[in-house]
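ok here's the first one, seq then struct tokens
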Amino acid sequence: MVADPRALNSWRRWGYRLLPGDLFSYVLHLRPAEWPIMAGHTLLGYVLAVGIGGAVRGARLPQAIGALVVWVVFLNGGTLAINSVFDKDEGDIGYLNAPPPLPRHLLAFSAALLAGGQLLAFAFPVAFRIDYAICLVLSILYSVPPFRFKAVAGVDWVINMWGFGTLTPFAAWAATGRALDMGHALVLLGFCPLFAGLYPLTQLYQMEEDRRRGDRTLALMLGMRASLAVAIACTVLAFGLFAWAAALLWVRAWLLVVPLIMWLALLAPWYARRDALSAAAQQRGMYRALGIWAITDLVVLQVFAR
């Protein structure tokens, strides 16, 4: 058993004082540590839609904030909570170290969040409602038996590359009501293979635990070497799509070289030293990749949000 999470650090102790009993455990299983990453990638679609100048002026800002709450807290938080219900992890999991014991009503809580988000989606344009509905179905298929596609190698990969990579920023774009042109569609599409490259990196440090539990993740199916090779190939493909979008939109794309070099500077040494790295080192590599993802978002905005 893990140590009592209420005694692990000061912010958790503060959280349990503010929300006594198991209430703060419900919040932790929403994995708020991921919210800044999810919020940043969601808002990318908003800034692409209104431009950097429009975002500074607050163009369609209420719609963007509303979409952000629905997408990050209700959809993403509910999905991660329902994952916790069926995974029953005791060790560290993504965005939550030493997870607390599962609260009694976590399944009902997560289901209410997911359903409530769909109801709130009706306050937004049709494209946003459809986007949420698609991702809601994907979340259920991903997490809930008898489907539980997160344990089916390859299917989990496809769900995540589309759900997080492309459909997440499209949600904020759709919330503005702006029609999607071909150039910006390619920009959003580029994040599909980019996340396809990131996704196996999130599994490498958990391979032993996943193997013991009987899950057949993408990383386990491919192995360490092929997983990293896929990450490199998908990253290059993503930047190829960004370059295509730049050609269609007639924008200068030289800044995209910066995050591309950062990705390759992380992945190439990781590939070369893969057999010598511990699980902790693999986990640190995953978090560095998340940082490079954030930089990629910023550069993409600088190039395309005009």
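and now the second one, same deal
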Amino acid sequence: MKNYFKINYIESFLIIIAFTALNFFNVIFKKLLIIINLPDGMVFSISYTIPFVLLFTFLSYQCQKKSIVIDLPMKLSPWYIYIIIFFMMLSMIILNEYISSLVPKEGPILGNMYKEIEFFLKEETKNPIPFFSTTVLLAPICEEVLFRGIILNGMLKNKIHPVKAILFSSFLFGLTHMNPWQFVGGLFVGSFIGFIYFTTSSIINCILLHVFNNAFALFAMFLFMENEKIVSQEKNINYSWIILLISLIIITIGSFFLLRKKMKNQNL
């Protein structure tokens, strides 16, 4: 019988503290990459990936020492499941955009923080290929392996209630983004992806949904940059309560369907 990787609340939190510490250390390493004259795009991609690689290497080493298996289910779901979960993800993006927009973007603290984020994004988009590949490919893979494949899966293996495990792992996911707008998104969208992991038992599904979310966000960001004045003028028109209600209905119906399917499979 395999000894699977299990984790509790405190251990999960300690992993994220270690990951955050690696990111702070990564600032120094990023400067070293700049000193050796690596292209800016490569610096961004490499510096983003390093904390994940170091953390995964450490966890893998510890698990090998204790003969523990980190179970990362890579199975594909039936085709109709992808239609359902991608429509649900699109609905979740719409709801998340509305909820995140409620967080203030002005004031002495939040205003400056938001301007810094905007400046960072504008600087990174000057190198669109590495920025796109990191945000749409590397980030979903690394983040889903950590937050759903290791933390959420480890908590579920530890018999922690699925709702508590999903919410706590999503809270940690939001926390690592270091700003209130992405914290809300991380908690909200992360909980949905965690639910998809729980019901479909596939890390691939989580990665694909994360790719879709990030690609959609980048597309919306570039669209906003190109048409900033038009978008700002139409902002109040775009968010229709009918669209929000339809999105909520799609998520609710899809969730019930996935839960029923999971219960049916467990009873077989």
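notes on #2: The chain is about 80% helix and 0% strand. Confidence is low (pLDDT under 50) at residues 229-234.
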